[in-house]
Model the fold of this input.
Amino acid sequence: MKKYFEETLPDNYEAAKTVDASNKKTGIIMNLCALAVMAVGVLISFLVIKPRDFFGNYDLIEMAVVCAVLLVYIVLHELVHGIAYKLLTKRKLKFGISLTAAYCGVPDIYVYRRCALISLFAPLVVFTAVFGAGVFLLSDAWHKFYCAVILFAHLGGCAGDIYDIILYLTVFRDPETLMRDTGPKQTFYVRRK
Ligand SMILES: [Zn+2]
Done:
């Protein structure tokens, strides 16, 4: 079976790209992308679902529940990354949260492309399915709308993961590409030519 990671960086590899969410500029850009996805998603959801009495009939308890779900979601999202990394590598994980991002990394090793992609896709797939199912299955229009808001907050919150996935699908297509994921910062390593 193919390996999912290397303990140390092999001699013939060099760093090719770094994505650092703890960097102020990167953090701001990612959060702006997340907000844009959320804003467009919520607008579309509103126009499609048309919850009644939008201007004047707020249910504060339901809105508090939405906020609570979002906070729990942030923790669960990172946990799902962690479960994927743990199953594939059995190594020590690093969880954290900063002003610009929550994160989960596996800082002591170098993971191969397939391992990184499984961990990157895991929360994206799981929570898109969960919240997507909610949007389709809930019958009350307001509940549907709240669920859509959470779905798009989730998709926006995946901006950093999606950016790494796009890099893997475009620039780093070699399966031998290694990544060191310290949590907020991912460094891609490729074989020296
Ligand atoms: Zn993530």
In short: The mean pLDDT is 94. The beta strands are 5-6, 13-20, 94-97, 102-112, 178-181, 185-191. The chain has five helices and six strands.
